[in-house]
Write a structure and sequence with these properties.
Length: 341
């Protein structure tokens, strides 16, 4: 048996507005089969031209998350699972990537311009003196955050234009986001705290924070006022995030052998941290860091999956232990980390 889903979930089961999505594949035992040997993922256009191909060797009951890039309009996605004796199951689906861009002429009477992904601008009457073509487009090559800035962008930049336009009255921009945007590695833990979302604009040199914003976590929309257009993105100012408790997660869990993973943790105050990995028998297999000094905020530890003797871990379940020392106390956090071939 074979099934797969998408992240983010397509609108009406067909349309997405992200150029890159995750394919979540689940394989089960095939009738009268041996262990599964190969899962093949392919993406083609409507002409049959191959856009993407990957073979995954695995076993039944495993799950995979595969990031795939889409082309505008229709993408035909096929997933084939085959066991050692040749039993085969194939699933085929078509998904459309809709480029989120729009162009509408608006005059002094005002109006609303909305892109397919929900990004929109509400222009009140009297904000314009002449008729102007208003544009909204999703951008995939936005400038990076400059070094030294405590800014973490969501990565959903939209350019509103024309960029040299100044309004006579403030206009309202509504910025959409999805749960996928806040959890790009799809490990079930949001990389960016939703309650701390704000908006940044690029002035041609650096990213700067706009004024007040309103975040609606029910509709996944952020509203704010501006008097001119430019490039905008959602993000957080990490200096303003309120940390009340220690939090941690591995970016790849389970971790595939040879690919490595990263431990991301949030320290509510300055302290020291030690991270150890144990097998299910309680034997120590790796020490990621020992008594490492950390400041308040978010930190990332990369790990290649090797033991303290330089060998890769075998597939299975492992226990990680985090000792967080701060002030006069030591807090201990434990969790599980899966390793697959």
């Amino acid at each position: 048996y074979l099934s797969f889903t998408y992240s983010p979930v397509p609108e009406e089961g067909y349309r997405v507005y992200q150029k890159e999505i995750y394919l979540n594949v689940r394989g089960y035992d095939l009738p009268d089969s041996e262990n599964v040997s190969v899962v093949m993922i392919e993406v083609r256009n409507l002409n049959g031209d191959l856009l993407y191909h990957k073979d995954i060797t695995s076993t039944p009951e495993e799950e995979w998350k595969e990031k795939i890039s889409l082309i505008p309009e229709d993408n035909v996605i096929s997933v084939t699972i085959k066991d050692w004796v040749g039993n085969t199951t194939v699933l085929v689906d078509t998904i459309a990537y809709i480029v989120p861009e729009v162009s509408v002429e608006i005059g002094p009477e005002g109006g609303v311009v909305e892109a397919p992904d929900g990004a929109k601008v509400i222009i009140p009457s009297g904000a314009l003196t002449d008729r102007v073509t208003i544009t909204i487009e999703r951008v995939f090559d936005a400038p990076p955050v400059q070094e030294g800035k405590d800014i973490k962008l969501v990565g959903v930049p939209h350019r509103f234009g024309p960029e040299d336009l100044v309004f006579r009255k403030p206009v309202t921009i509504v910025f959409p986001y999805t749960d996928f945007d806040l959890d790009r590695d799809q490990n079930g833990i949001k990389d960016i705290p939703e309650e701390s979302l704000t908006v940044f604009y690029h002035d041609g040199f650096e990213w700067l924070k706009v004024g007040d914003v309103s975040v609606n976590t029910d509709s996944n929309r952020v509203r704010f006022l501006v008097n001119h257009f430019t490039l905008f993105d959602l993000g957080v100012d990490q200096r303003e995030i309120s940390f009340s408790e220690f939090r941690s997660y591995f970016t790849r869990n389970p971790m595939r052998l040879g690919e490595g993973t990263s431990l991301v943790f949030f320290a509510p105050e300055k302290g020291r941290i030690t991270v150890r990995i144990y097998d299910l028998y309680g034997d120590l297999v790796a020490v990621l860091v020992k008594d490492m000094e950390v400041e308040k905020g978010e930190h990332t530890l990369k790990w290649d999956g090797r033991t303290q003797f330089g060998r890769f871990l075998g597939s299975g379940i492992y226990i990680y232990r985090i000792d967080y020392e701060h002030g006069q106390q030591v807090e201990v956090y434990r969790g599980t980390l899966g390793v697959i071939k």
